[in-house]
Amino acid sequence: MAKEQQVGTVIHYFKRPRVAVVRVTEGALAVGDEIHFHGATTDFSEQIKSMEVEHEKVQAAKTGDEVAIEVIERTRVHDRVFKVVD
Questions:
Q1: Of 37, 35, 65, whose CA–CA distance to 53 is shortest?
Q2: How many other CB atoms sit within 10 Å of the CB of residue 59?
Q3: Which of 23, 33, 36, 78 is most exposed, with the fewest beta carbons within 10 Å of its own?
Q4: To which H or E segment does residue 3 belong?
């Protein structure tokens, strides 16, 4: 099983388009990273295809950033976000 490191928390979710706003609390995220969303009723993984910070496309986000990530499933506020690391 792959190791995971918690990197943030979902602070908002938009239904259309499906976008999770993640507050990065530890470490960094980049386009291409594999991430795992986990909460009471949420549990899925996907690769980051694009991210935005304040409506500007970015390739990476660091601790303290609030980044919008397009997702394949619904997320909920307070879901934890993990980065899959080898």
A1: 65
A2: 11
A3: 78
A4: strand 3-14
Are 8 and 23 a contacting pair, CB within 8 Å? yes
For the entire predicted model, the pTM comes to 0.94
Mean pLDDT by 10 residues, the chain (86 residues): 92 96 97 97 97 95 97 97 92
Handedness of CA 69, 11, 24, 80 (dihedral sign): negative
Hunting for tokens 């394949």 — which residue is that? Answer: 72
CB count within 10 Å of CB 54 equals 9
Q: Does the domain formed by 3-85 have CATH 2.40.30.10?
A: yes
Direct distance between the N- and C-terminal alpha carbons of the chain, in angstroms, rounded to an integer: 9
Q: Domain limits of the chain?
A: 3-85
